[in-house]
Amino acid sequence: MRKWLPLAAACLGSFMFLVDTTVVTVALPGMARDLPASLESLQWVANVYTLVLAVLMLTAGSIADIYGHRDTYVGGLIAFGAASLLCGLAPDAATLIAARALQGIGGAALAVTTFALVAGSYDGKDRGTAMGVFFAVTGLAAAVGPMLGGVLTAGFGWRAIFFVNLPIVAFTVVLALRSLTNVRRGQSGARLGKDGARLDPFGMITFAVAAGALTYALTAGERGWYFVAAAGLVAFVAVERRRGGGGGPLLDLRLFARPAFSTVMLCAMAGSVSFACLVYTSIHLQSGEGLGPVRAGLAMTPLALASFLTSTVAGRFLHGASPRFTVGIGLLAGGLGCALQAWSLTPGLVVTGIGVGIAGPSMGAAVMASAPKERGGMAAGAMTTFRQLGQTLGVAVLGVVYQSESGLDGVYLTAGAIGLVTGGLAVAVIRRAPAPGVA
C-alpha cells in the first residue's frame, strides 16, 4: 500500500488543477451578481487561467528538470493554494482575474510535474498501472468539474469553489514531501540547480509571446495576434537552435528529430482538438436541453466511468505493447465515439471514454520513453503544452462549426474525422520508442 503513496500525491494535485479549469464556468453568473461586473468581463476569470497555463507549461517543465520535480510540484501546490485563497477573498472582478492568473502559475507547475513524478516513481507493470490510474483520475476530473462547481455554488456560494482547494493543498504538500523523491538530473546524469544549470530566459520570453498570443487570438477572436504568435514562434526557434542541446534550452529541438516524439506531440494536439467536442456536449445539455450543471454533469458520467475504468485496466495490461498500437487504437476509438454522438449520445460518450482511457496513458508512456530521462520534465511540459493548445484550438475551431448550419452534429462529425485521421497517422508512423537516452 505504501508504494502507491507517490501516485496518490500526484493524483491529488492533478485532480485539483484540472477541476479548476472547468469549475468556474458554472459559477460565473453568481460572480457577476456578487462583484458587480458583466459576464463578458468575467469570462476572463476562465480565460486568463488557460492563457497562463499555455504560456508557462514549457517553462515549468524546464524548471522541474533543473530544480527537481518534487520541489517544483510542492512550490506549485503552495502557489496554487495561496492564489485560491486570494480568489475566494477577492472583493472585485479585477482582483479575482489577477488571482486566477497567479493560480495559473501554480497550475502550470502541477500540470507538468505530476505526469513526470508518476512516470519516475514506478517501473515495469507498476508504472503501467500507475499511469493508467493517473490518466483515469485526470479524465474524471475534467468530467466532474462543472458538476462539482454546480454543487458547491448552489450550496455554499461561488467562493467555495476556491476555498475547497485549501485543505487539499495542505494535505497534498505533506503527502508529497513524505512520499516523493526530488530528482534533479543533468544531461549526463549530473545534478543541476545549485551545480550550475541555467534557465533559458530568452526562450521563455519568446515562447511566452508565441503561446500567449496564439491563445489570446483563439479565445478572443483577435486575428492580429496570429501575426504576433508567428513572429514569437520564429524567434523562439531561432533562440533554441542557437542554444543547442548543450546550452540548457527551454525545448531541445533535437527531440523532434525522433519520429516517436514528434508524432506523439502531433497526436496529443490533434487528439485534444477532437476531444474538445465534449465542451459543446456540455453546452448543449445546459442551454439546449435545459439541464442544470449537476444534471448535465451526471449525463456525462458514462464518459467519465468508461475513461476511468479503461485507463486503469489499459495501464496495466497494455504495458509493453507498441505505442503504434495503443495510441492509434485509442485515438481511433475516441474519434469513432465523437462521431457516434451525432446519432446517440450515451453510446458515443462510452466509446469516446474508452478511447480517451487508452490514448491518454499510451501517449504519456510513449513520450516519456522517447525522450532521455534527464529531459523528462521538458518532455512532459511539451506534451502538456501541445494538449493545452490543442484544447484551445479545438474549442475555437469547433465553435465555428457549432455556430454554422451543421450545428452540434457538425461538431461531432468534424471531431470524429480529426480523431480517426490522427489515429490512422499514429498507426502509420509511430514505432516502438527507442530506449531513453538513445538519439
TrEMBL record:
Domain annotation Major facilitator superfamily (MFS) profile: ranges: 6-434
UniProt subcellular location: Cell membrane
Keyword annotations of the record: Membrane, Transmembrane, Transmembrane helix
Transferase among keywords: no
Cross-referenced SUPFAM superfamilies: MFS general substrate transporter
Membrane topology classification: Multi-pass membrane protein
Transmembrane segments: 41-60, 72-91, 97-119, 131-154, 160-180, 201-218, 224-239, 260-283, 295-318, 325-343, 349-372, 384-404, 410-430
PANTHER family tied to this protein: EXPORT PROTEIN, MAJOR FACILITATOR SUPERFAMILY MULTIDRUG TRANSPORTER MFSC
Protein name, entry field: MFS transporter
Source species of the chain: Actinomadura barringtoniae
